[in-house]
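Section 5: illustrative case.
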């Protein structure tokens, strides 16, 4: 009988995706499997990707990574959400926070009670009932207080990959430097059998993970898996990125500022800020984008503005033959809700759970790809929502987004919320009802009705309920230290 046991996994590419994969594989499968990572010093990583979402903490727990240590090493700050500016309309703003808003009742979510209150003359904003959102607004943060706080990180992407490289190499990952010049396939099965480097070195393995970024050296150039283009729904196709020195204390949230033909990010780290403009090249040239970004940043620039081109969409199959694509090689939805690093993490965990020790089976491949489909479709819809639901009449780009067709699954969600105030999650959705509600309301979509369960309270009870919730939050926030002070004592990278 032939031995089909997988003994050697090769990870191609050493950006965030490659080193996250190497870290997880060497930590969790290292006893059974040899892990090799190939990266080229001549091909730069994408070098952006610095805002995360809360489940990254689970990834670190799974790997036994100490939070303070990784935050120090990556000059990280805390992130409580994203402040969206000029999105619904020019001069509007709202925060999509990681927190729960209000208090849920078994039969209906808090926003129904808030909508009922609004009808009765209560003027408080939806966000007034969210602890994380209020803490963000007031630049406060702490761990270990009475109230749990849901957060993620802003981190330096290059330092994060470096940290994970040291972590992985200590656990036995072998790193080979070199440019992949050839990918050999088995004539009979079409599986990848080996990778050859420009130096002539050949590395054979049983299973390959493509983390080569947009190039997709294995999954596309060798296996021709195909790409599903989503640019008719997500028309931005370019970004320009530049780093600046900090001129003020870091805020505990990302800023996302809409401009005429795209949006600008500001990601505060401990000593510098990551800035960028995501834009649509149909409406703005690269030079115009660079100028627009440079006009809208503060602080001395410490890098040259760099343009990055992309096509929103996804690889048709995440797992094909004996190769799984993780990171940008598997597709790119767009950085608006900082979902890429999260998708790297879920891909790693899904692959670990389905890992084909005894050979690749079609059922495992299908399971992986089906779960990936639902996850990507849900993320895609959530991102398109931000573009579609806008009331801006001042630019052709925003008008185009307002009138564009959206996937039927999203059209249904928008209609359901507008007509009934209800939100139901689809399979694979990584965002909670709270996130959908905050963004839909924030973008200006006001439901025509609320769930009558909210009438369970009479006017006095409702007032008491809303007032006590709001004051409990504002008391709790007032007890928190400044975000910057907390960083200094918890994870300062200067210490
Ligand atoms: P890359 O960083 O491109 O790494 C590719 C690796 O493959 C490199 O090591 C390279 O040397 C190697 N390689 C390529 N070809 C070869 C070859 N022939 N031979 C040998 N080695 C090779 N994500 C978030 O979660 N949050 C964000 O805020 C965020 N912002 C973003 C903003 C922009 C504008 C963009 C474009 C992306 C953003 N992302 C964000 C996504 C995030 O940057 C990526 O998901 C993440 O960096 C992973 O990239 P990667 O490792 O797949 O690819």
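Designed sequence:
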């Amino acid at each position: 009988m032939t031995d089909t046991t997988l003994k050697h996994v090769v990870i191609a590419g050493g950006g965030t995706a490659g080193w996250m994969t190497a870290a997880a594989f060497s930590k969790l499968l290292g006893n059974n499997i040899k892990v090799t990572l190939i990266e080229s010093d001549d091909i730069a990583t994408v070098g952006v990707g610095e805002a995360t979402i809360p489940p990254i903490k689970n990834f670190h727990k799974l790997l036994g990574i100490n939070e303070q240590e990784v935050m120090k090493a990556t000059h990280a700050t805390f992130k409580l959400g994203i402040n969206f500016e000029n999105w619904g309309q020019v001069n509007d703003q709202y925060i999509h926070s990681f927190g729960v808003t209000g208090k849920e009742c078994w039969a209906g979510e808090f926003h129904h009670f808030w909508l009922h209150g609004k009808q009765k003359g209560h003027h408080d904003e939806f966000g007034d009932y969210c602890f994380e959102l209020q803490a963000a607004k007031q630049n406060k943060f702490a761990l270990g207080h009475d109230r749990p706080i849901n957060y993620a990180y802003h981190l330096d992407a290059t330092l994060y990959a470096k940290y994970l490289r040291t972590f992985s190499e200590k656990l036995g990952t072998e790193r080979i430097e070199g440019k992949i010049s050839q990918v050999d396939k088995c004539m009979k099965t079409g599986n990848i059998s080996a990778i050859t480097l420009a130096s002539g070195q050949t590395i054979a393995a049983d299973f390959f993970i493509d983390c080569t970024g947009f190039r997709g050296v294995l999954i596309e150039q060798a296996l021709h898996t195909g790409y599903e283009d989503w640019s008719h729904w997500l028309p931005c196709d370019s970004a320009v990125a530049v780093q600046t020195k900090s001129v003020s204390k870091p805020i505990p949230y990302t800023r996302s500022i809409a401009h005429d033909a795209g949006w600008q990010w500001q990601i505060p780290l401990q000593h510098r800020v990551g800035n960028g403009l995501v834009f649509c090249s149909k409406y703005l040239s690269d030079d115009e984008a660079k100028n627009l970004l440079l006009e809208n940043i503060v602080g001395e620039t410490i890098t040259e503005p760099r343009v990055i081109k992309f096509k929103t969409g996804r690889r048709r199959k995440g797992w094909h033959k004996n190769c799984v694509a993780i990171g940008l090689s598997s597709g790119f939805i767009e950085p608006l809700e900082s979902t890429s690093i999260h998708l790297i993490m879920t891909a790693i965990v899904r692959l670990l759970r389905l890992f084909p020790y005894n050979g690749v089976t079609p059922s495992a491949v299908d399971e992986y790809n089906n779960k990936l489909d639902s996850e990507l479709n849900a993320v895609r819809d959530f991102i398109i929502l931000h573009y579609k639901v806008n009331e801006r009449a001042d630019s052709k780009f925003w008008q185009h987004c307002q009138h564009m067709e959206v996937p039927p699954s999203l059209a249904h969600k928008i209609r359901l919320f507008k007509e009934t105030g209800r939100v139901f999650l689809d399979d694979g959705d990584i965002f909670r009802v709270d996130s959908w509600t905050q963004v839909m309301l924030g973008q200006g979509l006001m439901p025509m009705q609320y769930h009558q369960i909210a009438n369970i309270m009479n006017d006095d009870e409702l007032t008491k309920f809303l007032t006590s919730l709001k004051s409990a939050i504002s008391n709790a926030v007032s007890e928190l230290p400044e975000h910057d002070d907390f960083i200094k004592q918890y994870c300062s990278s200067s210490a």
